[in-house]
Structures are given as structure tokens and as C-alpha cells.
Write a structure and sequence with these properties.
Elements: E1 22-28, H1 32-45, E2 51-57, H2 64-74, E3 78-82, H3 89-98, E4 104-107, H4 119-127, E5 133-137, E6 144-145, H5 150-166, E7 179-182, H6 183-189, H7 200-208, E8 214-218, E9 220-221, H8 235-247, H9 254-281, H10 285-308, H11 317-347, H12 351-374
Parallel strand pairs: 1-2, 1-4, 2-3, 5-8, 6-9
Antiparallel strand pairs: 4-7, 5-7
């Protein structure tokens, strides 16, 4: 009764179905006018090479992901990873590379400023075994710039010098956003990389501690055609946080360092409000202290929502409910702060040691509970 189920004929392979040798990862945000142009440029530059392109889009309001999807329907080499509720160039690059299927992965911006014609040369250097990492560098002979303004160039040069000296990074341009890496080496380092911030190459090189054989090549930096830069005014703090995280050998995360930095700003706000209340408005100490605490907590919440947790930024009604929960979390954190400080002072009556221990306990508590109850991932 039961007839044997025989397999049907195998689907004949497509003419161009060989496995890709190179995956090009492109993080995007509001780049709908650029992606088709970049795709065509990749097609021309990578002729004769088996390749794929992975666009990682942070749910762009301009519908960049929809344009990529249309491209993917016409060409199976095009893929789209649409991220909901997550932001950040580093995280996008990490997800894109790990989602790729090639032995080599390149990272290139969608703004058309990087030189895609250098990709075959970069691939050749990796495939021949001459390097584990190839960087498009702005600080070696042969580099040309058509779209790098002086202010941005100066900031990048300063950050590069800081990174090289503090983290002992040896490559000339660790701040570059244009590079290619062996995927197996990247996977070894990926668990230690930060998904926050914008400087994925610096994070990669600093995490490797000199174990990546790197080669740098010059390229021509073009002018932005459309869209908007993925960098904003908070990149400087992101950079400082990343450097501090690497100096601690990743014992503390970039997000925790940013949270603590905001807490330091909150202390200044608290003391300033307390001074105004006591010296200018002439209110009693208890009222001035309460006002200082409320103003400081409010400013901390706003800054953390804008900077530390910008990939999970609260909006609308969630912003108000988050603020109330942040008040609760910080109030309990204050009790933990005082409790630890008194305990330490009883054991060793050194006021600054007790105060530092209490403050550390407070910031750890506030950070942990904020992640659980205020900016919790959905």
C-alpha cells in the first residue's frame, strides 16, 4: 500500500552559482539614492570575481531596505539585513560579516566615498596569503581626497594619534572605514568586539593585539553624493569610551564606560544645582539637595537615552515611563551607594575610599538595573 517515495530530479545549478569568494558588507542608513549606484560600481569593479554584497540597514526611514530588496529580487548576489531597534555602524558591520558566506569580507560605506576599484587588489593580497587584513589608508603615499573637509580630517588625525599611542596600534589609519579581512580571523575576534560605536576597524586591530598581519593601500576618497553621514556629534565620546574599554582589556564594556561618564556629568549638574539653591535662591539644604538629585537624574536620563542607549532610544510615552523608572532605579542606587560607603567607612575610616566605593556601587547598580528595566530590549 505504501509506495516508495522517490526523490525528484535535482534542480540544475544556475550558470553563475559558484560560491562567492568575496562578501562586501555595506552598512546603510538613509542611503536609498546610493545603493543602486554602488551595486553597479561593484558589478563593474568585481567582474570575473565571485562576489556577494550584504547591505545591513538600520531600518532607514527613507526605505533604503526596500531598494535593496528590489535589487535582490533581480540579482541573488544582493542580500539585505534589515535591523529593527538597533543602531550603530560597528554592530552593523559585525552582523553583516558574520552573515556572509565568503572566506573574505570587505567593509565599505554606501556614500560612494570609498574606492571600490581597489577591492580586487585587496582581495589578491588576502588570497595570496600576504595579509590577514588590508586597509584603505588615508595616511600613506598615494592617497587622494576629493571630499574630506579640513575639520573632519583634523579630528580624524587627532583620534588616530591618540589610538596609536594609547592602544599601541601600529597601522597608519586605524580610523579607516574601508578594509577587507579574512573571515576566519574575524570570527576569532568577533566575540570580543563592541557592537556599539563607529570605529570597527580600531576595535578589531586593538582586540587582535598585533596578531593580524596588516597591509595598507592608498585610495581616492570621493565626495558624498546623497544621504547623510552615519557619524554624529557623539562620535567623540564613543571613541573615548572605546579607547578606555580597550585599555581595561575589555573588563568593562563601552556602554558601561559611557554610562559612567554620563554619571560624572550628573555629579557636576547635581553640585551646580545645589550651589544655586543654597547660595542664590537661599532655600534650605534639604530642598536644595532634593532639587539637585532630581535635576541630576533627569539630565542623566536624557544623556543616556541620547548617547549610551541611542540604539534603544525611548520615544513618546515610553520616554516618560522610562524617566519614572529611571528615578526609581537611581533612588535604590543611592541607598546602595550610602550603604556600601558606611560599611567601608566602618572598616577603614578613610572618607575618600568610602565615598569612591559607594559611588562605584551606585553606578554598577544603576547600570545593571537600567539595562533591565529602563532600556530593556524588546
Amino acid at each position: 500500500m505504501n509506495a516508495a517515495i522517490r526523490p525528484g530530479p535535482e534542480t540544475p545549478p544556475q550558470a553563475n552559482s559558484r560560491s562567492p569568494e568575496l562578501s562586501v558588507v555595506v552598512p546603510t542608513f538613509n542611503e536609498r539614492d546610493n545603493v543602486t549606484v554602488l551595486y553597479r560600481r561593484l558589478e563593474a569593479s568585481l567582474a570575473g570575481i565571485a562576489w556577494e554584497v550584504v547591505f545591513v540597514d538600520d531600518n532607514s526611514p527613507d526605505g533604503t531596505w526596500d531598494v535593496v530588496r528590489a535589487l535582490a529580487q533581480r540579482d541573488s548576489r544582493v542580500r539585505c539585513v534589515r535591523r529593527i531597534g538597533r543602531r550603530g555602524l560597528s554592530g552593523a558591520c559585525i552582523e553583516g560579516i558574520l552573515a556572509s558566506s565568503s572566506p573574505y569580507a570587505a567593509v565599505i560605506d554606501a556614500d560612494l566615498q570609498h574606492d571600490e576599484t581597489q577591492l580586487p587588489k585587496m582581495l589578491s593580497l588576502l588570497a595570496s596569503g600576504q595579509a590577514d587584513l588590508v586597509v584603505g589608508s588615508r595616511y600613506i603615499e598615494g592617497y587622494k581626497s576629493e571630499g574630506f573637509n579640513k575639520q573632519r580630517a583634523g579630528a580624524s588625525a587627532l583620534a588616530t594619534e591618540v589610538a596609536k599611542k594609547m592602544l599601541r596600534v601600529e597601522i597608519a589609519d586605524p580610523m579607516s572605514g574601508f578594509f577587507m579581512v579574512r573571515r576566519d580571523r574575524f570570527e576569532e575576534l568577533a566575540p570580543k568586539l563592541s557592537v556599539h560605536g563607529f570605529k570597527i576597524l580600531l576595535d578589531l586591530v586593538a582586540t587582535a593585539h598585533g596578531s593580524l598581519r596588516a597591509v595598507e593601500i592608498p585610495y581616492t576618497f570621493g565626495e558624498r553624493q546623497h544621504g547623510e553621514s552615519k557619524l554624529d556629534s557623539m562620535v567623540a565620546l564613543d571613541f573615548i569610551g572605546l579607547v578606555l574599554a580597550k585599555l581595561s582589556n575589555d573588563i568593562v564594556s563601552l556602554r558601561f564606560i559611557l554610562f559612567a561618564m554620563v554619571g560624572g556629568i550628573g555629579l557636576v549638574v547635581h553640585l551646580t544645582t545645589l550651589f544655586i539653591g543654597l547660595e542664590l535662591i537661599k532655600v534650605p539644604f534639604a530642598e536644595a539637595q532634593a532639587a539637585g538629585a532630581i535635576v541630576a537624574m533627569t539630565s542623566n536620563f536624557i544623556l543616556n537615552n541620547f548617547l549610551t542607549y541611542r540604539d534603544q532610544r525611548l520615544k513618546g510615552f515610553a520616554l516618560l515611563s522610562g524617566l519614572i523608572m529611571f528615578y526609581v532605579v537611581c533612588s535604590v542606587g543611592l541607598l546602595a551607594n550610602v550603604g556600601v560607603a558606611f560599611s567601608v567607612y566602618d572598616q577603614e575610616p578613610i572618607w575618600w575610599l568610602a565615598g569612591a566605593a559607594g559611588a562605584l556601587m551606585g553606578v554598577v547598580w544603576n547600570y545593571a538595573m537600567s539595562g533591565l528595566f529602563v532600556w530593556r530590549k524588546k
